[in-house]
Design a protein that fits this description.
Elements: H1 8-14, H2 24-48, H3 52-66, E1 88-101, E2 108-120, H4 124-133, H5 135-147, H6 151-155, H7 160-174, E3 181-191
Antiparallel strand pairs: 1-2, 2-3
């Protein structure tokens, strides 16, 4: 048997060779891979998240599904297309002046309007009695809806979404669908 003796200098010579330096090619492959992953994530997010129009349509659909059964036929309130316009009367629901703070800025919106409700002629006295009886809760609900409205909702020429929300909450407060529509008069808003 031959004995192998190792000298300290021989150990260094038999050590693993030094790793080769990676060139720019390896870095390009990693960068391309990461860019591909980010692009795929962006594409998936684009395809999965709904557009603002789709969100608004879904919200309107959900709102219509929650309307009481008597209100389903009046989904487009305030359009003047009701068949019984001759029997509907307007009842005064009050003057409102609301300040709506903007979450991303130091400014706020000032919203001023006069609100009317259309009711069947035969039920006008009942509606006026209920409004008088629940005036503070009614006003609170109107103010709540205006403060929770986006600037886009306030800029809508027909104020359709705001009208439907006020109508739904008001009729829920009254216990039955007495109001057929709500009408804004002298509506204005401006930034303060």
């Amino acid at each position: 048997m031959s004995a192998m003796t190792a000298h300290p200098g021989d150990v260094e010579a038999t050590a693993a060779p030094a790793p080769k330096e990676k060139g720019i090619g390896g870095k390009i492959v990693v960068a391309a891979f990461m860019s591909g992953v980010v692009a795929i994530e962006c594409l998936v997010a684009y395809l999965l998240f709904p557009s603002p129009e789709q969100v608004a349509a879904l919200a309107e659909k959900n709102l219509q599904m929650t309307l009481p059964a008597g209100l389903e036929g009046h989904a487009e309130q305030g359009t003047g297309k009701e068949s019984d316009d001759r029997t509907l009367m307007e009842t005064d629901l009050g003057d409102y002046s609301v300040t709506v703070p903007q979450p991303n800025g130091a400014s706020s919106l000032r919203v001023d309007f006069h609100l009317f409700g259309t009711v069947p002629d035969a039920e006008q006295v009942e509606v006026e009695r209920l409004v008088e009886r629940h005036i503070n809760r009614f006003r609170d609900q109107v103010l709540h809806e205006i403060r929770n409205s986006s600037p886009e909702d306030l800029a809508d020429p027909g104020l359709a979404l705001i009208k439907r929300r006020i109508l739904e909450r008001s009729n829920a407060l009254f216990g039955r669908p007495l109001l057929k529509s709500v009408v804004f008069s002298q509506f204005s808003y401006f930034e303060q």
